[in-house]
Amino acid sequence: QRPRVTISPDGTQLAIEAFTEGRRRIFLRALGSPETVELKGSLDAAAHFWSPDSRSIRYDPTRAAALTMSH
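-> structure tokens emitted (71 positions)
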């Protein structure tokens, strides 16, 4: 499957939803940086979207989970 990529509302980061080792995960990458980091707690995450302030990502499998990122 193709990765799903979204850009944060503030335009500073990418969230990349991709399969690794047979499971879906979300990876973050700051624009202008070559480094990609797995977002902790995102195992099996699906259909992610950014909060309006770009400080968190919400996703489904449970329809209630939210991840908060540190800046």
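The chain has a mean pLDDT of 84.
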